[in-house]
Write a structure and sequence with these properties.
3 helices, four-stranded antiparallel β-sheet, alpha+beta, Alpha-Beta Plaits, globular
Length: 102
């Protein structure tokens, strides 16, 4: 796994009410990842991106969500498929997305 690939694996954090509840209850963080990303790549990418926060990954669970069909009048479109990674953290490291936002 080269470092350039690992920087592209994680697309965005999922920030929602459910993601917040899961994070508080199970020490998990949810990320949107590339469709072809593996669990090992996701683990390495999280540890690489958040190494100054001393984050260690305990486990990675992956969910593939199919895009829904949506209508706009008589036209039928489709949302894109999404792959989400539920990353369980161990140790004292923590990921905070809100820190530094004014």
């Amino acid at each position: 796994m080269n470092q350039e690939r690992l920087m592209k694996v994680i697309l965005a954090p999922v920030i929602s009410e459910k993601a917040t509840l899961v994070g508080e209850k199970h020490r998990q963080v949810i990320f949107e990842v590339l469709q072809d990303a593996t669990k090992a790549e996701i683990k390495a990418a999280v540890e690489l991106l958040f190494k100054e926060q001393k984050v260690e990954v305990a486990a990675v669970n992956v969910v593939n969500t199919k895009g829904k069909e949506k209508r706009h009048g008589r036209f039928i479109g489709r949302r894109r498929n999404i792959k989400k990674a539920y990353v369980s953290l161990k140790g004292e490291g923590d990921i905070n997305f809100v820190e530094g936002v004014a």
